């Protein structure tokens, strides 16, 4: 009698005594794999090979997607990821002048509106002065400069008046039109600031300001 090793597909002669002694478990002479000798037992070697071929045909091979499918899926995944990055991080990304330049070129080609470029690190306020007026109000004067390569808008200056003990006694926020009378600061542009502040309830000992 003959049987077949399912591991290497080799046909192997076997006797009833061997099957009885090993309780049907045999060791392949070719690959050394242990297997059930009764599974493909036949009277001759050709029948064992035919059974092996039929068994192989009945086993369905998995159909893997083609290269074009994988390529399309990868492109879709990359575009989705890129869209998520720009959706959630567009403002932070646009603070980079290189990204802003690329974005403006792209929008110039597809007629889209680029986001507002804003980088507080490229804005400065200089020549600051706080003068008390005759009616106990205050006049804050300074100059604001845009050091970026792009125009900036939406700038806000927060001015905090401090008492002599260092505690805040008043705070005001001024938008760019209130600060400089314009809505946009052009590249390398410096504009004067003059802000009138109503008289606070306590004497002013100092001030701090912050651009945001």
From TrEMBL:
- Superkingdom classification of source: Bacteria
Q: What Pfam families does the annotation carry?
A: DUF3426
Name the NCBIfam families for this protein.
MJ0042_CXXC
Protein name per its UniProtKB record: DUF3426 domain-containing protein
Q: Which organism is it from?
A: Methylomonas aurea
């Amino acid at each position: 009698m003959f049987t077949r090793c399912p591991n290497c597909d080799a046909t192997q002669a076997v006797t009833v005594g061997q099957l009885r002694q090993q309780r049907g478990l045999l060791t392949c002479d070719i690959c050394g794999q242990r297997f059930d000798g009764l599974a493909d037992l036949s009277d001759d070697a050709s029948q064992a090979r035919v059974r092996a071929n039929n068994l192989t045909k009945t086993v369905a091979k998995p159909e893997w997607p083609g290269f074009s499918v994988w390529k399309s899926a990868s492109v879709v995944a990359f575009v989705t990821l890129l869209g998520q990055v720009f959706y959630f991080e567009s403002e932070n990304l646009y603070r980079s002048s290189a990204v802003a330049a690329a974005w403006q070129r792209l929008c110039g080609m597809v007629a889209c509106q680029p986001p507002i470029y804003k980088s507080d690190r490229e804005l400065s306020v200089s020549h600051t002065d706080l003068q008390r007026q005759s009616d106990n109000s205050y006049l804050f004067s300074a100059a604001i400069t845009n050091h970026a390569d792009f125009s900036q808008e939406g700038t806000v200056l927060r001015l905090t008046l401090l008492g002599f003990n260092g505690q805040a006694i008043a705070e005001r926020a001024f938008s760019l039109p209130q600060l400089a009378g314009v809505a946009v600061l052009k590249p390398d542009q410096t504009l004067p600031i003059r802000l009138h502040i109503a008289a606070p309830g306590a004497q002013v000992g100092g001030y701090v300001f912050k651009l945001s």
